[in-house]
Amino acid sequence: MPKNKFQDVIFTIIMALIMVYGMVVYNVALNTGGVTGQTFFLALHELPIMVPVAFVLEFFIVGKIARRLAFSVMKPTDRPQFITYAISICICCIMCPTMSLIATFLFKTPSFGTWVQTFAFNFPMAICWQMFYCGPLVRLIFRLIFREK
Question: What residue spans define the domains of the chain?
């Protein structure tokens, strides 16, 4: 989708913001025992920390690794939407344990068990959130911002 570095930065910022917000809402709901109006407000407190971390990780490290992994099973001639799905899944498979580790150190009592539990709770949600909601929404927003002529 992004055609140049500027578009890539914008796409990654939008993706990081929406993906992180959704996952933080989910984690706040887990920690508070349910979803209330307060949950969405409480999630905003972690965004200034987690969005820049997610952006830097994805833009400079994970995106490149995920593309290499995706193209180890996909061919450039495959349908573009399947390539997009493969890259998205690879990004989730790398970002989820990494962001779970960072969140464990920043917001919980750090231990290996706490990280494993956090990752185990987050991974199914991260894949579903990315594939069914966040990814399509971000691609729609991106297409609206950068309309092709």
Answer: 5-145
CA–CA dist 99, 35 (Å, integer): 22
Residuewise pLDDT in 10s, the chain (149 residues): 899 999 999 999 999 999 999 999 999 999 999 999 999 999 999 999 999 999 999 999 999 999 999 999 999 999 999 999 999 999 999 999 999 999 999 999 999 999 999 999 999 999 999 999 999 999 999 999 999 86
Torsion angle of C-alpha atoms 4, 48, 125, 35, degrees rounded to 10: -140
Torsion sign, CA atoms 78, 81, 86, 88: positive
Is pTM beyond 0.85 here?
yes
Whole-Å CA distances, 109 to 21, 68, 102, 117, 145: 22, 34, 12, 12, 41
Contact 87, 67 (CB under 8 A): yes
